[in-house]
Amino acid sequence: MQTAGKFDMNNSLRDSLERLAQSCRILEMEGHGDMTLGHLSLRDPEGRGFWMKRNRVGLGEIVGTEDFVLVDMDGNKVAGSGGRHSEWPIHSEIYRLRPDINAVAHTHAEFSSIFSASEEALLPYTLDADYFDAVPRHLDEVALINTKPEGLALATSLGTHYAVLMAYHGVTFCGTSIEHMTCVGVFLEKACKVHITAASAGLSKPKLSSDIRKKRNAQIMLPSHIDQSWNYFCRKLAWMREAHRGDSRLFR
Amino acid sequence: MQTAGKFDMNNSLRDSLERLAQSCRILEMEGHGDMTLGHLSLRDPEGRGFWMKRNRVGLGEIVGTEDFVLVDMDGNKVAGSGGRHSEWPIHSEIYRLRPDINAVAHTHAEFSSIFSASEEALLPYTLDADYFDAVPRHLDEVALINTKPEGLALATSLGTHYAVLMAYHGVTFCGTSIEHMTCVGVFLEKACKVHITAASAGLSKPKLSSDIRKKRNAQIMLPSHIDQSWNYFCRKLAWMREAHRGDSRLFR
Amino acid sequence: MQTAGKFDMNNSLRDSLERLAQSCRILEMEGHGDMTLGHLSLRDPEGRGFWMKRNRVGLGEIVGTEDFVLVDMDGNKVAGSGGRHSEWPIHSEIYRLRPDINAVAHTHAEFSSIFSASEEALLPYTLDADYFDAVPRHLDEVALINTKPEGLALATSLGTHYAVLMAYHGVTFCGTSIEHMTCVGVFLEKACKVHITAASAGLSKPKLSSDIRKKRNAQIMLPSHIDQSWNYFCRKLAWMREAHRGDSRLFR
Amino acid sequence: MQTAGKFDMNNSLRDSLERLAQSCRILEMEGHGDMTLGHLSLRDPEGRGFWMKRNRVGLGEIVGTEDFVLVDMDGNKVAGSGGRHSEWPIHSEIYRLRPDINAVAHTHAEFSSIFSASEEALLPYTLDADYFDAVPRHLDEVALINTKPEGLALATSLGTHYAVLMAYHGVTFCGTSIEHMTCVGVFLEKACKVHITAASAGLSKPKLSSDIRKKRNAQIMLPSHIDQSWNYFCRKLAWMREAHRGDSRLFR
Description:
Strand content of chain A: 5-15%
Oligomer: homotetramer
């Protein structure tokens, strides 16, 4: 593995990685943090692989470009000074199978992780589940996904969707942009929390036709809604930082 | 649609809109916030339509008069510089059918939204459900309510009540005053949370007669209780602002 | 009703009422607050009735001696400048029937209020329920308890216990001292939360013999434990105040 | 019992006790606090017994070396100025039976304590339960464990594991180091919370083979993971302190 030193980074990439760092902190704020576990990545615009969050720090501790390492499609670190998470094949194999995807995340979001154990579908008790057409479930006899075949199997389970539940483990989600991936993650976690709360109370299962679910999805999963939600999360992150005196690493 | 510039606003209207802004922040504080979604309105005292929260910002970000736009009964924006939410027909049609109503809100309050999926009635596990005589449920094959017929159907489901659950979506509530509407929203969210918690624990269903429910309602849903609760929420909002250093937009 | 002006108060009474104010804030901190509802009282050491929290403010807003009014056993306010809660008969009738009791509280603590709907006993899933030998349940066709016969019925349901659940409404608890009453309230709320959580998860019901429950109670419901817990709550209240900048009324 | 005065403490022991104090505050932060109840200890490196948290203060109030007392294997306090918890036999008997163990804790962590009532095993709904191979349950007709035979019975139930549920009471956990013990406690509480949430929602029980559970455990319960998690908790404690102005005793 090549040790990476100072790396030439143009302004566009620098800007993207700063937004990816913001995405890490937003996901921490919205319930995706689990100690130092979980990682996000951005497809390298120059085709060298993907920029992945360094290991040994939590999502909420990610500050900027220095917190990412460039990993090639075979898992070699080719730039950046941090450590590489062992689960890099989650990212490489999704980028390989899905040319439309530019950002990938794997987290142990609290309710999504619990819901990963469910053998039933995620139901539309509220609109949150309608941000997705459906969410597949990956059931494999592994814990960490740290080989290419395991990553390929997960990417295959993902199929053409934007999120896949990893049974008894967590969730992987992705998007055409950093903003899209972030919203998919946040909305999925909300939908799983809603489903778990509704199921706990024994509420009867929603009886929505496939047509109405498609209409609901078409009305809400719009680029303008992604933009407005992303901007909202960025402002909320700033309030949190102010409320916590600006000294806290968690919401910097 | 007429672009609205500087608009002449008398002191009484200015004061009302400042209380409506306070209502937005109180509802955010009490669990009604959902990113930039949800909106409140006040019937225009001069009969020009209603003043509605502008779009693209969250309930907790609403600061004052500049955050509202005047919308006529056909959905045209006639004053104010912000954007108009597409669900304006919720407001116009309730004002049309209910001359007693002066304030309307639609939110995705967490527990009310989940409870909207319930096919059973809201039960009086505690006094909170007795602030209402009953809460109807609107079951329609739509997602957003952005046409007059859809708004009319919702207003018809509301009937003579102050709140209506929108199945698999959220809740709409209203009142004779801003203070009344705010308390209806807060009390409903509390009652739904209580019902969901009690049902999760499998507690047996309350066996209260219709007469005792009427007596309970008559003892607690009083103008003086609305006043005292509103004043309490205003003071609580101020504590929150102080506790968060006054810089936070969330509880300003 | 006699309007009360400046009232002569000796140092001992002043000190007691300051501890009663602290009890109000501790109970707010530990989940007993419900807007401006709920009230605490201390038996007047000179036999004139009881000192009761004034109305229109929340438990967390109670600061000191000026927040209490002296109410006689017939409900007349004989000292203090605040308003009197209408549910004074809860207090008068318990003091009348129970000479051992010096402090009484009625609150809508979240989990205790929900658990008041339970037709089954509070079970010892953890030690918290063992702070009580048992908790009776008052089932009456009333909402507010604002007449002497209603207060007497509640006091009769309480019997020789320190807490009584008020079905579909809330809880009343009491003690030989302010500290004892406070701990009873906090421990009961913890036990009800534990019971509701355990029952929601479908855990099997505890199989503890009556003898072992008595032993558990004898080991933990000791004066020294009350003292240590009260002192802990007072310190916790001070941390909260510091953490919230000392300006907040909530944890002053 | 010998009253302990100034005690000679070398730098290594001083450093260990400071990390033990940090462990107390981390456990408070992660849900193990219950007023002044619960205690941690470190095996004395010179064979004189164990250093145990003093009584009458909460886990979050433990600041440094002055908050520990040296207790010998018969329960005599031989150094330190604080009081000794009555449940010292939990510690002495585990150290006696388990030479590999250097740190022991007993707490009333919220979800672990509730889960102690479960007659079913802790299930791997997520990876959290895989940090353990299994968790035994101690079912004894006692409340406090304050005699040697009771401590021995608990240590026997613990067997070769790192955690044991104490039915209807709480949990005891231990480790080869302070860091190990801390992580066992935090991970167990997470796993119990996950199990309770999943069971409440009625999710089907995980169907993982014994082999895959062993593989999952081998992949995640590594010394490097303990180190990274401990370091993360220490940083999180520092953010909390900053966010709460540094004045709060709770997160100092």
